[in-house]
Amino acid sequence: MKKEVGLWVDHRQAVIVTIKNNVAVTQEINSDMEKHVRFSGGSDSSNSGDSHESNAEDQRDRKFSDHLNQYYDGIISLIRDAESIWIFGPGEAKSELENRLKKAELGARIVGIYPVDKMTTPQIIARIQSHYLL
C-alpha cells in the first residue's frame, strides 16, 4: 500500500492530503499561532531600556520558534510513514518544514517544494489529487 502525501502549509495552518489506495483523506491542522511581529531596531541606543526591550523581543522570538517547532512536529507525526511528500504554500513555512523533515531523516521522501499563494481547501485537495492520481 503506497502512501503519498501532499500538503499546503503556512505558519497558521496546514492542509494535509494523504492518498492511499487511490483514496484521499484530508486533515487540517491549525497552529493557533498569532501573527509574529518582528521589531526593527529603530530605538535610540542611549535609552537605558534597550536591553530590556531586546530581551523581551528575544523571548517573543523564542516562544514563536518553540511554538512553530511543536506545530511542525505535529505535522511530521501525521506524515512520517508517507513514501512521498509534496509540500507547497506561501512564505517560509514550507522551507522550515523541509528542514525539520531533513532533521527527522525524512528529507529523501520529499518529491517537491513549490511556492503558491493562499488556496482554499478544495483547491488544495484538487491540486494534490491531480499531482498524484493523474
Class per helix and strand makeup: alpha/beta
Tell me the domain tally.
Answer: 1
Whole-number mean pLDDT = 86
Looking at CATH, the homologous superfamily is eRF1 domain 2
Helix content: 40-55%
Radius of gyration, taken over Cα atoms and rounded to an integer in Å: 18 Å
Question: How would you describe this structure in keywords?
Answer:
134 residues; alpha/beta; Nucleotidyltransferase, domain 5; five-stranded mixed beta sheet; 5 strands; elongated
Describe the structure.
The chain is an alpha/beta fold. It has one domain (3-31, 54-133): eRF1 domain 2 (Nucleotidyltransferase, domain 5, 2-Layer Sandwich), CATH 3.30.420. The chain has three helices and five strands. It has helices at residues 50-79, 93-103, 121-133, and strands spanning 3-9, 13-20, 23-30, 84-89, 110-115. The chain has a five-stranded mixed sheet, sandwiched between helices. α1 crosses α2. The two termini are 18 Å apart. The model is unreliable at 37-48 (pLDDT under 50).
SSE inventory with pairings:
Layout: E1 3-9, E2 13-20, E3 23-30, H1 50-79, E4 84-89, H2 93-103, E5 110-115, H3 121-133
Parallel strand pairs: 1-4, 4-5
Antiparallel strand pairs: 1-2, 2-3
